[in-house]
Amino acid sequence: MKLKSALLGAATAVAFAPMAFAERGSDGEVKIIYWQAPSILNPYLSGGTKDIESASLVVEPLARYDETGTLVPWLVDSIPTVENGGVSEDLTTITWNITPGLVWSDGTAFTSADVLFTHEYCTHPEGGCAQLTKFEGVASVEAPDDLTVVVTFEGPTPNPYGPFVGGESPILQAAQFADCLGARAPECTDANFNPIGTGPFTVTEFKPNDVITMAANDNYRDPAKPAFATVTFKGGGDATAAGRSVMETGEFDYAWNLQLAPDVIAGMEAAGKGTPVAGFGPLVERIMINQTNPDPALGPDERAVVKPHPIFQDVRVVQAMSLAIDRPLLVEVGYGQAGRVTCNWVPAPAIYSSEALSCDTQDMDAAKALLAEAGWADSDGDGVLDKDGVKFSILYQTSTNAVRQDFQALIKQWWEELGIEVELRNLDASVFFGGDPGSPDTFQKFYADVQMYANTFNGTDPQAYLGNMLCSKIPSPASQWQGENISRWCSDEYEVLYEELTQTADINERSRIARELNDMAVTGGAMIPLVHRGRISAHANSLGGVKLNVWDSEIWNAADWFRIDE
């Protein structure tokens, strides 16, 4: 399949006809490579995609989204709705009925107690949970019996599918994590590296930032799956090497996130050993703007926490920086047909995509005028703008990746034309997205002025994702640097409008409010959206069953993968 045809649909993928496996483990080893290496297998302690997706092979949610964005039951009998009685008429409760007979990989029963514990784990007041937004508005979680879970919300909740849904909100085994609540959560290395799960595979050995070896789960609910006996999940390197290892050398079976120029992918595909798969979901490459001061001279409880940033409090500054960026050129250089210019934080689904913002055209003159209007001028003739004794000098960081370094070089050039002094830093992706509270280099800690990366959300409703910008979600030492509000942007008006979204059922009204929230965050200077990215990966021609998923974990159906005889 050619890359162009792969990107025509919203979530297109190569799919093979289902087949019955002769027996579990009959197809030997499958080898997966993520060039951003996983550093932990607990999604509640990391917001990094590579950690969430590698963990999805082991720990699972009650329900998840399939490759079309449809919510499907996973560890339950059906999706609760108002129509079937699973969601109350007043939209304040949702009742999940766990499928009977499910067991953990250690052979013990999977029950509602594990679901209750997972809620307690993420919402513990002394801990930091990377997925806390999933539990926003939850008043209680109860278990009337071993197979029933009732989630009660603080008020009417039109979208009750946040808790325990999707790869970001899986169920943890209560017995394994019982002593890992609150501040102790990051200290439970064995549990965080070797979680007991209900998924198709179990962890044999985990080497952080390197390689994970897994084996078929002997207690998996389908006795004929998975087809593969073992998984080698390799991390590290770069996107180029990952793509080549599947499409040129055939060393690996699946390569994730091929953030490469289109001609590079086409050249790899021509070797004939593998096929790229792609689809557009809500993934956006953006520049986050730090609203707090990351000055190293500040103490650990103040740096990137409470002190306002000396440059970015005036939104005109961020608007000028955005105007200086030639987004069509970035798309051409970095993604080709796998990218689209976007001004939005939430570019998809289409009903939630705002049309109020425009950023297709670079305008250096308008950018310079805005900065002058904001009081920035080169008063000492050194080529760098200044104001009230503050130099417009910033640190711009991102993860190490060829496309991102190309973007950095171009954007640095454009910003320097405005009189902004720009220092570039790139960090190993495994560290940058790792979530280690002791590391100074994580994207959550944000010890820089601006930083660039991509992010997305599970499912097709952006409510929880938009909740990431709430003031209460700002990472800090108190939360062990977990939290989704990476920019530390805070707006009372945003909080009020978000609360309205959580109580609105009508889909047209929900889309209107979501678009307004998107516009508020972008025009308010929280971020500079750059490119709406198609997600591109590749699989070996000998690997069947692959269905690329842009709405959940990309490797969500690994239990259905199988080897094709060539």
Which features does this protein show?
566 residues; alpha+beta; Dipeptide-binding Protein, domain 3; 11-stranded mixed sheet; 15 helices; 23% helix; globular
Question: How would you characterize this protein structure?
Answer:
The protein is α+β, with helices and mostly antiparallel strands and 566 residues long. It has helices at 3-6, 49-55, 112-123, 174-177, 189-193, 239-247, 262-269, 315-323, 327-334, 364-373, 402-417, 429-432, 463-466, 492-502, 507-523, and strands at 29-34, 63-65, 71-73, 93-97, 138-145, 148-153, 201-207, 211-216, 230-235, 254-255, 274-289, 339-341, 386-387, 390-391, 393-399, 421-427, 450-455, 527-540, 543-544, 562-563. The strands form five sheets. Strands 1, 7, 8, 9, 10, 11, 12, 15, 16, 17 and 18 form an eleven-stranded mixed sheet that branches. It has a three-stranded antiparallel sheet with strand order 4-6-5, with helices on one face. It has a two-stranded antiparallel ribbon with strand order 2-3. Mean pLDDT is 93; it is low at 1-21.
